[in-house]
Structure formats: structure tokens, C-alpha cells
Amino acid sequence: MKRELIYRTFSNIPTLKTDRLVLRKMKVTDTDDMFQYAKLQKTTKYLTWRPHKNREYTKEYLEYLTGRYKTGDFYDWAITLDGKMIGTCGFTRFEPQNDLAEIGYVVNPEYWGQGVATEAAKKVIEFGFRVLGVHRIEAKYMAGNTASRRVMEKLGMRYEGEFTDAIKVYGEYKTVGVYSIISNIFCGE
């Protein structure tokens, strides 16, 4: 996997489709949809960011992402269902020298328990393996986030363990667990 391929791909991020979902570039016009879930404490309980304070904050964030997309150094898609943005899914980091990527996802609580995160993440993982040439994809969760762990298991990822107090989030140490999948396992080779 080459760094140049990553930048080239994400500077013109392709639209991905599943049976129900369209994964596309986030836009400033998604402000209301994103703010609807990003303002909620229950959405961010197991994330490294706090709830959005107001609609303007969400709008400014989406404006900021417009520039990040142009340079190819932002790797997240908007998850949309029937035209409404209901979350995000994408890559949180790449290690090109190791052919490794990490994925993450956030879904509006109104759509929890409906398989949205699993469906979107499966498409993103497939894209990573087939288009970007990634060999290993990891996903991390904060201890207590059993719903995220279930998504990882449904994706066929393998549990690798937990790291006690591995990150500090707003003054509190959090234990982080890791799951992974290798390309030949996912692609059935």
C-alpha cells in the first residue's frame, strides 16, 4: 500500500453503496443530520470527542473537513440512508509501511440495533482490502462498549486483547480493546 494511493483516493473520495446505504463524502449540508446525533452524550460516551455544543460547531467542523478531503488526508464517509446522514464510517489511520489500517464508525442512536454500522464497516473493509491493498485492518473500542464489539465480531474480526488505561480521554484513563482481520480471511482466499 502506497501513501500516494491513499492521498489520491481520498482527495476524490469515491461513493460506496450497499443494499441499503450510500457512503459518500460529508458535506456542509449534512449539518442538521450530524448535529442531531453528535450533540448527544449517549453517542459520544465511548468516543474521544465530546458532544457538539451547537449547530454552528457542527457546521464549522464540516467546513473544516471540506479542506481535509481536498488534500486527501481525511478518510471518513458519511453513512446515508434514504438521503439522510445517519453516521460516519471510515479509516482512522493508515500505516502504509505495514499495509495496515484502522477503521471506526459512529451511528445516530435512532438507528442503533439495525445493522447499520456492520453494513457500512463491511463495505469500508472490503474497499481497504480490494482497492487500497491493505493487508490488516484493526478496530478499537473502549471497555464497556459491547455494541461496538458485537459489530467487530459480526465482521469476522478476531479479538486480540485489551490494553489497560491505554488512552486518556478528557482526564480519564480508558481501557481499549483491539480486534483485527487479515485480507485473505475477509476475502476468502
What does this structure look like?
This protein has helices spanning 3-10, 31-38, 41-44, 55-71, 116-130, 146-154, 183-186, and strands at residues 16-17, 21-24, 76-81, 84-95, 100-107, 136-142, 158-169, 172-182. By secondary structure, the protein is an alpha+beta fold. An 8-stranded mixed β-sheet has the order 1-2-3-4-5-6-8-7, sandwiched between helices. Helix 2 crosses helix 4. The chain is globular. The two termini are 19 Å apart. The mean pLDDT is 96.
Notable characteristics:
189 residues, alpha+beta, 8-stranded mixed β-sheet
- Spatial extent as radius of gyration: 16 Å
Q: H/E series, N to C?
A: HEEHHHEEEHEHEEH
Q: Main β-sheet: number of strands, strand sense, barrel status?
A: 8 strands, mixed
Share in β-strands: 25-35%
Shape: globular
Number of strands: 8
The secondary-structure class comes to alpha+beta
Termini separation (Å)?
19 Å
Percent helix among the residues?
A: 25-40%
Counting H and I runs of at least 4 residues, what is the number of helices? 7
Mean pLDDT metric: 96
- Unreliable stretches, pLDDT < 50, 5 or more residues? none
Instruction: Going across the biggest sheet, name each strand in turn.
Output: 1-2-3-4-5-6-8-7
